[in-house]
Amino acid sequence: MARNVIIVGAGRVGRRVAQQLSEEQNRVTVVERDAEKCEQVSPAVSNVIEGDGTDTDSLEQADLGATDIVAALTNDTDVNLTVCETAYETATDVRTLLRISRDGEEGYGHRRFVDDIVYPAAAGASVAAERIARK
Question: What gap in Å lies between CA 122 and CA 103, rounded to an integer?
Fold first, then answer.
């Protein structure tokens, strides 16, 4: 089932997620402040908005009302928290995904406006440990 996804942040993580979701036939809109990053991700996604993902206007321009999930994937946990809260307050039915940047931030998942958390460093460590342990 194709989904409408807004990704805030087109750094390494956001760009890879956007590309993968687009390849799976999802409608992906990326919101990114940096014009160069917008250019890098634009061939892979449905729509790119050069703007601030913490700003309600940018999220509305990304068609928040028709979105299934907002993934806040910048490398700044505080920005990502603001994105998730703004999305939740504007469209309460939207799911939110919060990227955290540091150990100990997993507790942010208890907030009512955060549906799920991703921690790339921990995910990478798990994959590395699994591959090291292979025979």
Answer: 8
